[in-house]
Write a structure and sequence with these properties.
It is a single chain. This protein has a domain at about 5-260: Nucleotidyltransferase, domain 5 (2-Layer Sandwich). It is built from 17 helices and 22 strands. It has helices at about 5-15, 60-85, 125-135, 145-155, 170-175, 185, 200-210, 240-245, 265-270, 325-340, 350-360, 400-425, 445-455, 465-475, 485-495, 505-520, 525-534, and strands at about 20-25, 30-35, 40-50, 50-55, 55-60, 95-100, 105, 165, 180-185, 195, 200, 225-230, 260-265, 280-285, 290-295, 305-310, 315-320, 370, 390, 430-435, 455-460, 500-505. The strands form seven sheets. The protein has a seven-stranded mixed β-sheet, with helices on both faces. Strands 3-2-1-6-13 form a five-stranded mixed β-sheet. β2 and β3 form a beta hairpin. α12 crosses α13 (about 445-455). The longest helix is centred in the last third of the chain and has 25 residues, at about 400-425. It starts with a helix and ends with a helix. This is FGGY-family carbohydrate kinase.
């Protein structure tokens, strides 16, 4: 048990119910972070989980959602007990976030009609193309409306029974509170949002209803979608049933207010203080995406760019890549097992750190190697499926340093293609904030990302906490929303004394990455051939 002054204050906050809790259901981990009113992390808990590829669809079962949430909250409770000697019973606020997009369809009795279709699925091409043309607004393959319209086009038998559509965060929030609502950021990945109203775009809703009128007379999409709220608005209270779903031991009491549920893109913006114009952030996990807050709407529609919003409802250009750090993580496991086979078992974080450190010793262009981290399809490069590849020519220099540098470059490859489209629109960016587990190893991924995007990259002390911490901060914002807007709350109360490390692009790295990207782009034909042959 910790007994210093900081812990004494934390115990006082816990006893008085002043702590806020954020929970995020990521692609490979469910994590909960408990924070003080100023956002200082107090405790955390996590649970690892994995998606399944069932009948050519990426999915998670709802049973896995709840067993994972209970394991995560149980681990958090254990951490609170270990540090502060008392259970967590009351909260000032609670928030749930999760991977965005996808398709969760329920009937009038609240029963799931088809297995959850996650953001990784790329089976919605015809629907996304038709809707994009109709709306004059890019509708990515993973957006909920694309999944729903594709189900209509395919005459799937469940469609007439659909009474509610939502995201994973919206589903969990609904079960915890009884309210079907979404934060505007998550909602903007279901259906386009009008920044003037902070709600679904009325013109496009009418267009959709007219489009499906002959196939599904009387269908009104607005009646199926969750209500939209912005950061700072109360989104319901934790019910007795909801408290029991999170914590079957009964320690956690009902009654806490919940903030609007958000997507992992929104929590990433909060976690990096990137919610004001000319700021942006990159989140690196199973997927990787960049968010840049816009000063004005984009002039053209680009299939590489989503237009979504911050949790406060301001327009954001999003470059979303389905494939992030998973392939690099798989190689780290291989090298970790190799170390164990030699009689030197090593903690995974140490293996990962050693490999990233080695990447800095590699040649600036990766020594002529090229790699693709495509475990799933990648819409930006036009691939419906993925096959991880490492390719080299006979005169490439295959060293550990070049290999690892190439794997890191590959994680940023598709992202940099999308960012070049954004630069072509004249979008200005002062600093790009990065967060995610890859940045726990100081200086490496940050430096190579700066080369990939051609902009300064900043990493704050909270970078490794990522989205769950950002969600907890949004929950803490409930108590301050009446006094401060979200950017001011973050800048003054949460990040006012934050330690931030900024790395400028190194000219040699920039030139080397440009050479790598030329090979990467040319070699996409080999990646496409691999998906056809294997």
């Amino acid at each position: 048990m910790i007994t210093d002054d900081r812990s004494a204050q934390a115990r006082a906050d816990l006893a008085a119910g002043r702590a806020a809790l954020g929970i995020e259901l990521g692609s490979t981990r469910i994590k909960a972070v408990l924070v003080a009113p100023d956002g200082t992390p107090l405790a955390s808990g996590s649970h690892d989980w994995e998606n399944q590829f069932v009948e050519r669809m990426w999915t998670y079962s709802l049973d896995a959602v709840w067993s994972g949430l209970q394991a995560c909250v149980g681990a958090l409770q254990a951490d609170v007990e270990r540090q502060y000697g008392a259970p967590l019973t009351e909260l000032s606020g609670l928030g749930v976030s999760a991977m965005m997009h996808g398709y969760l369809a329920f009937d009038a009795d609240g029963e799931l009609l088809v297995p959850f279709r996650t953001w990784r699925n790329t089976t919605t091409g015809p629907a996304a193309a038709e809707l994009s043309a109709l709306f004059g607004h890019n509708i990515p393959l993973r957006w909920s409306v694309a999944h729903f319209y594709q189900a209509i086009l395919d005459d799937e038998p469940h469609v007439p029974q659909v009474a509610m559509l939502t995201t994973l965060a919206g589903y969990v929030h609904w079960r915890l509170t009884g309210r079907s609502v979404l934060g505007v950021g998550d909602a903007s990945g279901m259906f386009p949002v009008d920044p003037a109203t902070r709600g679904y775009d009325a013109r496009m809703l009418a267009q959709f209803d007219e489009l499906v009128g002959q196939r599904r007379p009387g269908l009104h999409l607005a009646e199926l979608l969750p209500d939209v709220l912005v950061a700072g608005q109360e989104a319901g209270r934790l019910t007795e049933e909801g408290a029991a779903l999170l914590d079957p031991t009964g320690s956690l009491r009902a009654g806490a207010p919940l903030c609007p549920p958000e997507g992992d893109a929104g929590t990433g913006m909060v976690a990096t203080n990137a919610v004001a114009p000319r700021t942006g952030n990159v989140s690196v996990g199973t997927s990787i995406f960049a968010m840049v807050v816009l000063e004005h709407p984009l002039e053209r529609v680009h299939h590489e760019l989503d237009v979504v919003t911050t949790p406060a409802g301001d327009l954001v250009a999003m470059v979303h890549c389905n494939n992030g750090a998973s392939e690099l993580g798989a190689w780290a496991e291989v090298f970790g097992r190799f170390a164990a086979a030699l009689g030197h078992p090593t903690e995974p974080d140490a293996v990962f750190g050693a490999l990233l450190g080695e990447a800095l010793e590699g040649e600036a262009d990766g020594g002529g190697l090229v790699a693709y981290n495509y475990l799933s399809g990648e819409p930006i490069t036009g691939l419906d499926e993925g096959r991880p590849l490492v390719v080299r020519t006979p005169d490439s220099r295959l060293t550990l340093a070049n290999f690892v540098r190439t794997q890191v470059y590959a994680a940023f490859g598709t992202l940099s293609l999308g960012m070049r489209v954004l630069a072509g629109e004249g979008v200005a960016l002062d600093t790009l904030f990065a967060h995610g587990g890859m940045f726990r190893t100081a200086g490496v991924a940050q430096r190579l990302l700066a080369a990939a995007v051609g902009a300064p990259v900043a990493v704050a002390r909270t970078a490794s906490e990522g989205g769950p911490w950002g969600m907890a901060v949004l929950a803490a914002y409930l108590d301050a929303a009446g006094e401060l807007d979200l950017p001011t709350f973050l800048s003054t109360r949460v990040f006012g004394s934050a330690e931030v490390d900024v790395v400028e692009p190194d000219p040699g790295d920039v030139a080397g990455y440009a050479t790598f990207l030329e090979r990467y782009t040319a070699g996409l034909a080999a990646e496409r051939a691999a998906t056809e042959a294997l």
